[in-house]
Amino acid sequence: MENALAAAGYPARILVACSGGPDSLALAAVAAYFARRGHVDGHPVSVAAAIVDHQLQPGSAEVASRTASVLRELGLSPVEVRTVEVSSTGFGPEAAARDARHAALEAAADAHGCNVILLGHTLDDQAEQVLLGLARGSGTRSLAGMRPARGRLLRPFLGLRRMETLEICDAEELEPWHDPSNADPAFARSRTRVEVMPVLEEKLGPGVAESLARTAAILQQDADFLEDLADQTYGSLVQRTDDGAWLPEDAVRDLPAALRFRVIAKAAADVGGQQPGYGRLQAAEALLRRQGSAGPVELPGHVSVYRLSLSDLEQERAAAAVVGTGDSASAGPREAVRCGKLVFRHQKSSQQ
Fold first, then answer.
1. Which residues face 341 on adjacent strands?
2. Confidence class of residue 331 from pLDDT cuts 50, 70 and 90?
3. I want to staple 115 with a disulfide (CB 3.0 to 4.6 A). Which of 11, 86, 131, 162 is the partner?
4. Which helix (H) or strand (E) holds 159?
């Protein structure tokens, strides 16, 4: 805990997210220790707490109320329960609940002037995240798992096993709530936790979870490097327009594949789209190998991408010159590149 707070610059106001489960309850108990002391390594600190009631299970309000009472007894203040409505987002119930929870926690942190939000994810959660990413055929970013710190979110328990959080609760004489959904085979994460990880530990020996978490830590460094490089590359290539953005196809085609796919994904996000899956990215990238103008390829979030060939560009410029729009004079230096372009437009923009 001290190391995580030190890395975050010793925040003076902390919000602990607590469901009442063993991981987050153990986290709250450790945070309460520093709250009672009033400082972390000599730096003043106060700790608030928030419980998010997703209203997805019978009795959830009672669980939230009971958890709030326990946190107050530990010395956390203020402690509040935030009730949320979990609406479908198209990415599954777990993702929808997570989005609603994070929004509620950010709002609670704002309300109480908290600099950071502590989450109770453990090394076991990280290992499960990596396994799920492998099963889905995800890329480096997904396999890198959860970050120890991201924005205001801190996960100081990513180095602890789930069993250790149970031991903390026992030592503090706390009775955690055990979420029945954690053993529900309807959820992929629950199946991974209850069925897959035990088999791996049995067949491959102990240490599988630690190895998977170590893999995530290594991949986080690789993903960060590639992400920074992709940001720089995209910034140097993109040309934004009133109805979208475009990239010079020769420059994109010459990029290494790891950068080329990331740059295309960034263009889609830049015009209002969502992160494309690998299959959709492949379809968009294949436009670079087509003859003449091609597309559109539809990407998530109502984004269309298509290739406009050099010959068609020249016809557009000639037509614009005839009608006197002055397009060739106002297009900017990148428009003069002698190649086609990869165009990204949000469908709503196109309709308008």
1. 248, 308
2. very low
3. 11
4. none
Structure confidence at residue 329 (pLDDT): 36
Helix, strand, coil percent values for the chain (each to nearest 5): 55, 15, 30
The CA-atom distances, in angstroms, between 310 and each of 292, 293, 307, 317, 343 are 8, 8, 10, 10, 13
Q: Which two tokens stand for residue 15?
A: 């919000």
Report DSSP letters for 57-115, one per residue.
STTHHHHHHHHHHHHHHHT-SSEEEEE------SS-HHHHHHHHHHHHHHHHHHHTT-S
Rounded CA separation 3/336 (Å): 53
Token pair of 341 as six digits: 């372009």
Q: Are 123 and 209 in contact (CB under 8 A)?
A: yes
Question: For residue 90, with 0-12 CB atoms within 10 Å meaning exposed, 13-18 middle and 19 or more buried, which class applies?
Answer: exposed
Q: SS3 for 251?
A: helix
Nearest CA-CA partner of 342 in 247, 243, 223: 247
Neighbouring residues of 59: CB distance < 8 A, sequence distance ≥ 6: none
Measured between alpha carbons, how far is 51 from 63 in angstroms, rounded to an integer? 10
Cα-atom radius of gyration of the chain, to the nearest Å? 25
pLDDT in tens, 21-54: 999 999 999 999 999 999 999 999 999 999 999 9
Backbone angles phi, psi at 191, to 5 degrees: -65, -40
User: How many other C-beta atoms are found inside a 10 Å radius of the C-beta of residue 3?
Assistant: 10
pTM: 0.82
